[in-house]
Amino acid sequence: MAGKSRKKIKRRDFFRQSAATGVGIAAAKSVPSAVAAEGPASAQPDERKILTMSDMEGVNGIFNWAEQCNQRKSPRWKESQELLTGEVNAAVEGLIAGGATEVVVWDGHDGGETLSATDIHPKARLLIGSPIPPIREFDSTFCGIVFVGQHARAGPEDRVLPHSFFFNIQNLWVNGKLVGEIGIRVIVAGEMGVPAIMLAGETTACKEIRELIPQVECAEVKSGVSATAGFTLPYSAACELIRSKAEAAMRRVGEFKPYRIDGPVEVQSEFAASVAPGPDLRRVDERTVVYTGRNIIDAWFKFSRLEARHQDSNSLLASHNLSPPVTEACRSCLNDFIFVLRQASRRIAGIHQQLRVACNEFVIV
After folding, report:
1. Are 100 and 48 in contact (CB under 8 A)?
2. Structural domain span for residue 89
3. What is the number of structural domains in the chain?
4. Does 304 map to a domain?
5. How many helices (H) and strands (E) does the chain have?
6. Could you report the per-residue pLDDT of 93-130, keeping only the tens digit for each?
7. What's 182's domain CATH number?
8. In this structure, is residue 325 part of a structural domain?
9. Is the dihedral of CA 301, 163, 257, 211 positive or negative?
10. pTM
11. What's the confidence (pLDDT) of residue 121?
């Protein structure tokens, strides 16, 4: 039931109780955790820790992916970094003014290589780089999650740079509810007992999060007239709006409840082109697959395997400054090829292991 309040759980207890895949758990344990190093996750009464997750396509002043969002090829990339950093720092400033004791900023755009420690707010902790497992460094010690630079889900052309994780995903559902990146992250945070409290981004993105959290604070910094055009605020006005909304959200943090859904959970994804077969998925038709889990974390770990395949193809396509539609057409072929290579690699690894065992058992007399 959406909005249902439940007892918060520790990350390590959650892993014991959930049916998350072994691969996902291994990945989450593979990198030393600052939280784990400090002991069990338990929020102190005076702790008011916030996770701020950033993206770029929803940032004020950004309307063209090829010109502004591709870190390797976009001629206006430096400007885009400055715009995003300014919005993130404004959010951090507002959260601290509203009473936050710690703000963790998660660089969520294009492999976590967008923000820099040289100009992030001095009172924030920055989480950058990749890979980062889906719920790494995120547990119920946080009292809220904030989104900055958020774009709308895939859909009509009056949304600025709309997509749902990949430009070739046409629709994404959780238990039959149409969602995008915002919806998935709000639900995942809710499963960890953490409410979404504020979003800064495009107008349609604000409408999306209000469908789940009606009382959420929103800073609408731009609105679209097409996928690559729209109205924007002056930079200083956008940052001030974000700062004030973040402060207001922090002062109201006790009013927000985690958005929860009961399991089992189905994540269904419809692609623009055919999808190669893979582990843990059920194929509905040539372009639609379903991942099922005991809860959203379990299902999302499985979907993240598909995301990893797309990241592999991203690295192969990164040196070519292609438009999103052309990139996705190439990616579909590459993903099929990568899948075949991985299957072959597993078979070769299995044969290699059998040979090693056979050699160890062979004794020369």
Report:
1. yes
2. 11-255
3. 1
4. no
5. 10, 12
6. 999 999 999 999 999 887 778 999 999 999 999 998 87
7. 3.40.50.10780
8. no
9. negative
10. 0.73
11. 97
